[in-house]
Amino acid sequence: MSYDTQTPQAPHVAMRNGLGTAALTLGIIGTVAGVIPLFFWLAGLLGLIALILGLVGRGRVKRGEANNKGVTTTGVVLGLAALVLSVVGAVITYTVVSDVVDAVEEAAPKDPSGGTDKGGAAKGDVGKGLAAGDTAIYDDLKVTVSEAKAYKPSEFAAGHTEGNKAYQVTVVIENGGKEKFDATLATLTARAGKDGVTAEQVFDEKVGTGFSGTILPGKKSTVVFAFDTPKDAKNLSVEVSPGLEHEASQWELKVG
C-alpha cells in the first residue's frame, strides 16, 4: 500500500490591482488638467479621487492582495500633484477674472447725467465743486444741498461764537434704490472763508439733529443744518458723505 506524500499546491490568489491602476490613470489625467488653470476644478476632483484610490491600493499591497506597489505609489504622488496644481490654477483663474472685471468697470461708460458707480457722482462740475441746488447722483441715492441762508442761533445755541455769522443749509437725501437706506450713516462737514477754516456745526432747538432712522425706497429725508463762520467769510464749503459705500460730494456756497 502506497501513500501520496506530495504536498498539495496552495490555491492561486488573484491580485487585486484595479485600484492602483485607476489611481495612476486618474492621477495622470488630473495632473494634465491642472497644467491648464481654467480646469483647476477637474484637476482637484480627479486628484482627490486618485489619492484616495492610491492609498487604498497601497493597503492592499501591504496585505499581499496586490503586487503593483510602484503603480499605486505613482498614482498617489500624481494625485497630490493634481491637488496642488488645482489650488494654483484656482488662484490664477480668480486673479485673471478679477483683473478683467476691474478693467471692464473702468472702461464702462459713465452715466450721462454725470453719475458714476458709487460716489463723486454729481449733476454739475465735480472738479470745481457743486453749486447751491445741485444734486449729487449715485446709483441708489440723490443728495441735494440748498443755498446758504443767514441763521440766527438761539441764546443757548452750541457751536456758535459771538461775533461770527451763522448760515443754514437744507440737505435732502432721496432713496432711489430698492432697499431702505440707513440715514444715520450720512455725515456733513463744512469749511468757510479763503483759509478754509472749519465751520462748526450749530446746535439749538431748531437745527443740529442730523439725519436719523431709515429712508424707504422712493422716499426722501430733509434736514436743516447750520454752520458758524468767520464774519468776513465769503464762501461756505459743505461736504456730504452719504455713507461708507459712497464717496463724499462737495458744494461751494456763497455767503456774506
Sketch the topology as an H/E string, one letter per element.
Answer: HHHEEEEEEEEEEE
Shape: rod-shaped
Which structural category do the helix and sheet elements fall into?
alpha+beta
Number of strands: 11
Task: List low-confidence stretches.
Answer: 111-121, 123-127
Kindly state the mean pLDDT as a whole number?
85
Percent strand equals 15-25%
> In whole angstroms, how far apart are the ends?
139 Å
| Number of helical regions | 3
Largest sheet: 5 strands, antiparallel
The rounded Rg comes to: 37 Å
Helix content percent band: 25-40%
How would the blueprint of this fold be written?
Layout: H1 18-35, H2 40-62, H3 69-107, E1 135-137, E2 141-145, E3 149-151, E4 165-175, E5 181-182, E6 187-192, E7 197-198, E8 214-215, E9 220-229, E10 235-241, E11 249-254
Antiparallel strand pairs: 1-2, 2-4, 3-4, 4-9, 5-8, 6-7, 6-10, 10-11
Helix pairs in contact: 1-2, 1-3, 2-3
